[in-house]
Amino acid sequence: MRLLVGLSGNLNRPSRTRVLVEAIASQVVSRGGWRSECFDVLDAGPALGATFSKDAAAPEHRSVWDKIAACDAIVVGSPVYKASYTGLLKHFFDLLEPTLLAGKPIIVCATAKAPHHALMIDHQFRPLFAFFGSWIVPTGIFATDADFRSPENLGDGLSAKISKAAEELRFHFAHELNSPKLG
Ligand SMILES: Cc1cc2nc3c(=O)[nH]c(=O)nc-3n(C[C@H](O)[C@H](O)[C@H](O)COP(=O)(O)O)c2cc1C
After folding, report:
1. What pLDDT, in 10s, does the model give residues 127-164?
2. 51-91 pLDDT per residue, tens
């Protein structure tokens, strides 16, 4: 059974972003052969922002880090803050070893108030994971408040897009695009 880890950059709960990350993870799991565990940066503990090395990381921070290192694929999401992902999410990634996400498939998603900030996915998230050498699925998922019935409940409007991203992830593994032979 493969492990999908969801990581959301939200700093508040309830979080629309975390709900979106969990919805994407459950679409992948529903196709079979996967289990998922979802976290947000708050799960890494209140000390995350004042942690400057892995050696200094609190146990709850290391636990999220270790899951990211060990998993087969990741769903990363963030609320758009000042036209980018949240600073604390970037800090989490700044502390990771540069090779840790190489070749790892990633589905990216974001939530925001302004529809035009959908560009955050392509202008901010994709370059970050290109740096890590990750395999980013083509379909990114972006939601505004209008896509939610409530902060805890995603509406149905994004289901086709979420399914497409989950299919792209399935395609990746079906065609062994993560095979060492390609490296
Ligand atoms: C500090 C801060 C900065 C924000 N900046 C933006 C922004 O630049 N563009 C935007 O469309 N929404 C912005 N928002 C709104 C959030 O992106 C939006 O409400 C998001 O869905 C919240 O996600 P969450 O429920 O997971 O926290 C901002 C919110 C906060 C608190």
Report:
1. 999 999 999 999 999 999 999 999 999 999 999 999 99
2. 999 899 999 999 999 999 999 999 999 999 999 999 999 99
Contact partners, residue 87, CB within 8 Å, separation at least 6: 81
Top-tier CATH class for 2-182:
alpha beta
The finding on whether 83 has its CB within 6 A of some atom of ligand 1 is: yes
DSSP 84: B
86 lines ligand 1 (CB under 6 A): no
Residue nearest to atom 16 of ligand 1 (CA): 112
Beta strand pairing status for 2-8 and 34-40?
Answer: parallel
- Assess contact for 37 and 68: CB atoms under 8 A: no
